[in-house]
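Record format v2
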Amino acid sequence: MTGKNLTQSAAFLALRAAAIITLAVLFIIIIYIMSNGLRHINTSFFLQGPTSMGRDGGIAPFIVSTLYVSAVSLVIAAPVGIGSALYLSEYSKGGLPVRIIRFCTETLAGIPSIIFGLFGFVFFVVSLGMGWSVLSGGLTLACMVLPTIIKTSEEAIKTVPDTYREGSMALGATKWQTIVKVVLPVSVPGIITGIILSIGRAVGETAAVILTAGSSLRAPVSITDPGRTMSVHLYVLTMEGISNEKAFATAAVLILFVLGINYAANKTATFIRRKV
Amino acid sequence: MKPAITIKNLNFYYRQVMALKNISIDIPANRVTALIGPSGCGKSTFLRVLNRMNDLIEGTRIEGKILFNDTNIYKDMDLMKLRKKVGMVFQKPNPFPMSVYNNIAYGPRLHRKISDKELDGIVEKSLKSASLWDEVRDRMESSALGLSGGQQQRLCIARCLAVQPEVLLMDEPTSALDPVSTAKIEELVKDLRDKFAIIIVTHNMQQAGRISDYTAFFLNGEIVEYGATREIFHRPVDKRTEDYITGRFG
Amino acid sequence: MRSHEKWVQGILFILATTAVLTVLAITFFIFSEGLPIMVDRGVTGFIGSTRWEPLSGSFGILGMIIGTIQITLGAIALGVPVGLACAVYLAEIADRRLEKILRPGIELLAGIPSVVYGFFGLSVVVPFLREHFPGNGFSILAGSIILAIMILPTVVNISENSIRSVPGDYRSASLALGASHWQTILRVILPAARSGIAASVILGMGRAIGETMAVIMVTGNVTKVAGSIFDPARTLTGNIAIEMGYAAGEHREALFATGVILFLIIMVLNFSTTRFSRKAGDVK
């Protein structure tokens, strides 16, 4: 073997090692949390409320808050995001306004969550008087996930072949009819993937939510009630040293949730690939 | 004279497809050999067999022998040593996105530690051999991508020369160039013939006639006819060769 | 029909401006809350001072700026080599089996909530450091380790894309000159992909600087400037998240001012990535 070949083998070994280290880290995190968390999870953990600040009992109200806040954020962000994507890909003819919109979408994607938290706090919670509530939290999260939805929807819409549009227009359909009847149905799986990923982000978010939705122990009923999401609960349990067991259990639920989200997103993505 | 490369009973497969069939020829040293034939006839594939560039494509397989310096290049020769000795110029000029100087210095630096002074010498000599020196001597540090297409192609030739090859493979080196640049490259090929065996794939019949000493006519993965260019062009033995050369097909 | 189309286009345009309005609103509110105290204290009293004592009215955030830089550099130093190596592995030499696990694995890393990373850091990394190194484990190093893991997906994905977009011509030219695959990667492909790789590092940096929960759970959050990587430190994000819950008046304004600085840093980084990705290509 020549020196060159030897160097190459050594280098490729190092690259492979990096890949394996990355996977090892992932597996260590997941296995560590699952092995410590799953044994503290049972049906009552899902169905009961917490007692003594979360030292005992379950996380039912936090699951409710999580779903509630995420739902509010998506009900707002999905139509706005899909609408923006439609404008950008179907209607706009380029130029300055579009450049500004794209630039701001990218900027929004780069803003740290704590800044969203500060903004949500001063704007929704204080200025608009919504208080710490599911609504404030949902609106703040909607701002955060908006770029994700715009980007994934736009990519999905771009994959629709122009011949489809031309075919529809040639039959006398208006642009909007073409979008509703042809473009959207074809791009739905891609759009759904984006929405699923956004749910993942909304569920996992902590910094922005703690400043806007509060951290009430009770399950929110009205949209104006405060609520504590699972991520916030995990944070409080850990930082205030309330219960290590419950923290592991909550972290395990969050990991399960992320696994589910990734699985669902990949399934819809595969579905698209099969269809095209 | 001893041939530069000897090919014996070469078969080449791309997955199930047999792309080259039973090819046996000697490539002479210090001569220009042109490979001609219609698109998809296997001439470029054949060229890439000679420096094993086809190895990069998955699912390729080879049978037979290719001897270079009495060594079977698919068995007993280090791949990188082979490619150093058998240089290649591509259809589209592909200089690296680096300075002119670093493009030429790239090859020598790969193969051994080398002093700056020696490298300067190699760079200058290679550029002179590729008749590019006068055009680029004042812009050695500027990007090679700023050169014209013809200059880029001559730079790529100089880049090959810098590693002192014994054989130069050229895959339609002028097909992306204008007539003036083409003429310069053809001139260069004639000059370089004294030093190397040159194998050139070309679509351009006149070009093959102008610059080559020997010509091989490929059709459907086989060599129909191989011999001195003058013979092939004026007294082709095979009817198919005659048809192709006189422009009746392809 | 025509007027109906006009309406649709108008409505979609309004929806599309939401992103713009949001950015404007965020900028406006953060600055209007944070600027007054910055102006009042001046550059020296705010950015130039390491004294953060809200009770006595000292709001110097230099310590947090330094803490953020220290932890981010640590994360880059640990995460970028591994991430870049993964990217090269995936783009150039991956065998199918490992690739099939690695890709979804990296997606999964990107999906794990930051609070879970923080929790993992607190339960595993911090105790480990406490046992084997000086200090109590809550440290710059702990923050850097966790952030290094968190920025991996960003670094891997963007670097891999830029490596893959290097024209195949360069690869062929290099190999045909007798270069080994590794020499080709090192001397042609990586240099040609360097602007994209730089962008991935900057975006990774942005992610590290902006990360909040994972960091406050492992870094100890003291306002004193750390002297070693085993010392605790506080970041800009940590400063806001920890004290926002009970801050009022000037104190709250100072936290918004911290947000202003954070916002500006992130904007500068974002601008520089767009610049980097715009001038693609040339290797000198």
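Residues 279-284 of chain C have pLDDT under 50 and may be disordered.
Chain C has two domains: 3-48, 64-278.
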